[in-house]
Amino acid sequence: MTLRRSSTRSVAIGNVTIGNGSPVVVQSMCATKTQDVDATVEQAEQLRRAGAGVVRIAVDSVKDAEAVAAIRERTTANLSVDLQENYRLAERVAPHVDKIRYNPGHLYHHEREKPVRDKVAFLVDIAGASDCAMRVGVNSGSIDPARADEFSEDSVGAMVASALEHAEMLDALGFTRYCVSLKDSDPAKVIEGNQRFAAERPDVPLHLGVTEAGLPPDGIIKTRIAFEQLLTQGIGDTIRVSLTLPNATKHEEVEIGHRILDDIASGRFRSVPKTLSNELNIISCPSCSRVENEQFVELAQKVQEMSRYAKDHAITIAVMGCRVNGPGETDDADLGLWCAPQYVNLKKGGDGLGAFSYEEILPRLKEELDRLIEERTAAG
Q: Quick one: which of 25, 64, 134, 355 could link to 238 by a disulfide (CB 3.0–4.6 Å)?
């Protein structure tokens, strides 16, 4: 089976090209601390050898940015830098990477009085001068506040509007070497968001991913749902499989991504649950350098094991490893945990229930899960 490809524009990222009929590129992200140059280089090379066409690293501080130059000297991977909340760090890292990723929702954290277009223009100038591609990375958990208010009942609409706005901004600034991603932890929203964006902007290459997909095998199933539906429609030019994995096995994201592509191209479509919405759904973010306590991965595994008894209840539990996406992503879950260095914040919907130690959180979560099951059973 030959995958039908949409006729998007071509975007070069180092020595690979996405879009315009090019093969779908698999990428991944280092989970190491960026300032640990040795560990980050080792993992970047591990991911490259596994078949990652692009390797992303996070930059959240000046010290992270300074480490990027040393990392660049020791790996041949095509590097994408994930700008967090300080867009001005692009100036320090762009000469050493092949792509810059920014989140429209995070542009509002610095220099709030400055128009967003001016900040995007700054990134365009930096990317152009350094021969970098760009990605507009829209996440449901960190939407531009103005868009979130405008689409209060339609989180997919907020993502699509934000992505379209920034694509138009980049075009108006004369910069077309970019791709867009619209990510959510719900594969149905990923499918809808990408379909809606592609209908409006079929020329823009799309980076596909289910963010916070969680642990294998559930996280793989969620990702397959989105990829099978979108890639068979010709939507998607590069993919990231986001799983909660220990550092030593992070390369499995890349191998799984290639396996999914091979299965789709060969017409092998895996069976999936009838509907995730009628079953227990565990969301957990991929382990990346933003994780502030490595116990997060172990905690996510324990939550999955502890909650098996609730498998037939339509309840979503989110386990988030950092402060960037954690607070926002857990708002949409029935029960949410977002992990700080020394404690775990427990939430029920958007309401905080307190902070608990890593030793205390599991039994406390079980109490809330039992209470929620009882409430819903009583309500019929």
A: 25
